[in-house]
Structures are given as structure tokens and as C-alpha cells.
Amino acid sequence: MSSVDSPAALWVVPVPDFGGVARHVVDMARAGLPGFNLVVLAPTGKLTERLESMGVEVIHAEFGPDYGFKTSFATLDAAISEHKPALVHSHLAYADVVAAAVVNARAVRRVLNKGVWVPKLVTTEHGIAGNDTVYHKSSWRSKLMEQVHRVRLWGTDKAIAVSDSTAEQMGAKWGARNVTTVYNGVDIEEVRSAVEAQRTVPLDGAPRLLSLSRLSPEKGIDVLLEAFALLHADYPQAHLEIAGSGDLADELAAHAERLNLGDTVTFSGFVDPVAAMSRSNLLVQLSVWENCSYTLLDARSAGLKVVATAVGGNPEILEPVSLVNRDSKQLVQDVYHAMRTQLQSSASDSFTWISNEQMAAQTVALYTRLLAGGK
Questions:
Q1: Phi, psi (5° rounding) for residue 146?
Q2: Summary mean pLDDT of the chain
Q3: Is the pLDDT of residue 345 over 90?
């Protein structure tokens, strides 16, 4: 357990809303960081509200893309001066860059003023892709950010990746070395119990398929619709729920209409993922890239069957029978056959994964070693 006398770990998050990284932060806060006091600096929003309801110390900050680099720099610099954390731990690219600039600027200032506090700098990479178009719309921006990340990693004491695939990409693209993988954790029994408490259809009932993602090009939902049209010929009672929002909502709805899918497809918009899984027995995720997908972790924890693309960290979560080659020239057929195979298989295999408590313990071990002078 931590105490008021424990060293502070200042987590820096540049987004106010609740998404994958915010869940990572909340899960870590729930598990706790034994021996450290967790302090989270983030712009005011759903994340800070959730953390404060849990009793986590929060710094409501003018920090992130909406505030600009100069203001974000000054905000973090002031927070370090006030709180004197043993470590600054950044999440997402914007925070990574600003945190590296602030901590290394303080190191330069300490040459002239020994009283300047300089914490250790840790970063966790949540989103790097083998396909540059996933996160960058132009090749020049991709090359620019590659160089920025190379530079900021030179001044970072410890880099963490959320999957082995992520670690490999960090090395290949940014020259990162000695990256340690700490997977996103999931409390399997908690997820399973929550889904089962709301379950409305049996896992072995009529096929109820689910897509739970943004409605954007890199998610491959157009391919899912075409594959589902083939599957529906075999399973007339099958239903597909497209949950999520995004720029392609109207286009995808029109595509479903062209495929004559009618009311066999529902576009449900933003939904509670637990409720969505409770009315499903097969989740399909056809992303161009994933690092360590919470959607897949939750689906497997809930006992759903899964079909997903063999990209990024997905093969580290799923068995080969659940995976399809995203680059296949017959991707629609491959997805159809994979869905059919899963539906005809017996109950989903048991699933094991690291818990949130184990994720936190691995992180604390890295902190402790770093502060003791280890690499």
C-alpha cells in the first residue's frame, strides 16, 4: 500500500474523454501502485471525474492539443515543481513529446541550479502501427513524427509497450531499445460476471454478431457487411449489430442496404459495451492494426467467440483459428469462413490473461528498479 510518504508517480494524459488509454489509467488506479502515490495530470473531463470518484489525486490541467505546446509545457513544468514526483509517466504521443521536453529542459536547468527537481521519465506506448496510414494521413507527417519520437526516446529513462508487437514496432520505427512489455490487464471474472448479469441471448443460440468499434475506414466494417451477407444465406436467423459512431455511419448504412440486409443489421451507435456483449455470441474485429485491444480482451473474458485480423497484438491474445489475414486478396471469403467455423465450433475455450493487479505489480517493479539505478 502507498502512503503520504511514498514517492509520487505523476501520470500525464492529454485527453479528457474515456477511451482505451483512459481505461488503462482507471484500471491501474483501481489496482493501485504499491509503494507509490498515483497522481494524474489531465484536462478536466470524464476521466478526471471518474478518477476523483475513486479517490485518486487529480491535477486538472490546461494540457493537451487543445491548449497548445507552450501552455502544456508550462502546466507540466509547474506541476513537477509543486509535487516533486519521483517519476513522470506519459501516455499518448502528445504527452510523450511534452513530457520529454519538460523533463529534459529541467535537467539542463539543474546544471546551473542544483535545486531544480528532475524526475525520472517513463513512457507507455499504446498506439503504434506497422501501417503508417493508421495514425498519420500523410507520409511527410509520418516521417516527421518518427524523428520526433526517436529524439524524445533518447531523453526517456524507461519505455513500456502494451504488447510484444508494439515493442517490436517501437524498435523498428524509432530505434527504441530495452522496451519492456506490460500488457493491458483485464479482470476476467469481473467482466464475465457483468456480461452474464445482463445476458439476453444464450451463447449457443441463433448467431448474434457484434462489431464494437469506430465507424472509420481502418476498422474494415465494409468487409464485415459483405462477409455477413454470405453468412446470412447459411444462417437466416443471424443478426449483426454495428455498435459505434464515426464518419462512415451513413456510408455503411447505405452499403448494408445495397446488400439487401434489411433489418438483419442494426446500427446502434454508441452503446454500453457490456450490454452489447450480453446480446451477442460472436465478436468480429477487422482492424488494420491493434496494439492490445481491450475489445478483444473483454470479448474473450465474456466467453464470446471472436474473429479478428492477425495484426499487431491480436495474435498475442487470440488463437490462430480466430484470426484472418488482413492482406488477403479474398478477405471477404476468409472472414465468412472464419465466422462460419467459429459458429459451428463448440463453446469458446477458456481464456487466461494478466489481471489489472498483475499489470500494476509489473509497472511498480519497473519503477522500483529504475529509481534504484537499474535499467
A1: -60, -45
A2: 93
A3: no
